[in-house]
Amino acid sequence: MSAISLHQVSLPSAPLRLTRRGRIVLIGVPLVVIAVLLLSLAGIFHSPAKASDSASDLAVTPTLTVTVQPGQSLWAIASAVAPDRDARDVVADIVQLNNLRAGSVLPGQQLFVPTR
């Protein structure tokens, strides 16, 4: 009898079968990567524009500091500091300059108010 070497025997290969977890990984991971890339690109293309191309185009808003008196509102402050402008625009400028979350102010609070 002759001995058969293991190198001479070829076993039939079984067909490749993916488990449920394998299919999820094979399909899910590329989908997640594509979604992340698309969201990143959307964020880049929908980002806000620059305010100015050069520093020479930027201007500082002239302001003065006002201390809020008891019973005083943003509307009253806006009407007093800029009677020639629309009070709504001045109130919006005050809110933006001072990073106010609500439209109310407290007595003693100091606010930056635009002078133009």
UniProtKB/TrEMBL annotation:
The keyword Lyase is annotated on this UniProt entry: no
Pfam family of the protein (one): LysM
UniProt-listed PROSITE patterns: LYSM
TM helices/strands, residue ranges: 24-45
Domain LysM: 64-113
Domain of life where this protein originates: Bacteria
Record keyword Ligase present: no
The entry's keywords: Membrane, Transmembrane, Transmembrane helix
Name recorded for this polypeptide: LysM repeat protein
Species of origin: Pseudarthrobacter enclensis
